[in-house]
Amino acid sequence: MKILIIFLILLLIGLQYKLWFGDGSLSEVVQLSRELEIQKQKLQVLEERNRILEAQVLDLQNGLDAFEEKARNDLGMIKQGETFIQLIPAEGGSIGQ
C-alpha cells in the first residue's frame, strides 16, 4: 500500500511539474495569450492602414477620370493634340436644322 501511495504522490508531482513548468504550462499559455492580443492589435492597425491605402488607390484610379471629365465638361479643357469644336445652336432652333 505504501508503494502505491508513493507512486501516486510521485505521479502527482510529475503532473504538477508539467502543468507549471513543462511545454504548454500555464505560464506559457498566459504569455502566448498576451502575445496573441498584441498581434491582434497590430493586425487591426495594419488592416485599417490597408483600407486607407485601398481607398486612396481607388480614388486615384477613378479620381483622375473624374477630374478629366470635370475639366472637359465644366472648364472646356482639352488634351494636347486634340482639336476643340464647339457647336453653338442657331437662334430659335436646334442644331441640325
What report would you give on this structure?
The protein has two helices and no strands. With 97 residues, the protein is mainly alpha-helical. It has a domain at 12-73. The longest helix has 50 residues, at 26-75. The termini are far apart.
Short description:
The protein is mostly helical.
Secondary structure blueprint with pairings:
Layout: H1 2-21, H2 26-75
Structural class: mainly alpha
Q: Report how far the terminal alpha carbons are from each other.
A: 119 Å
Q: Any idea what the radius of gyration is? A: 37 Å
Parts with pLDDT < 50 across at least 5 consecutive residues: none
Largest sheet: number of strands, sense, barrel closure: none
Binned strand content: under 5%
Helical residues, percent: over 70%
Please state the average pLDDT score.
83
Q: Can you tell me the overall shape?
A: rod-shaped
Number of helices: 2
Task: Describe the structure using short key phrases.
97 residues, rod-shaped, 0% strand, mainly alpha
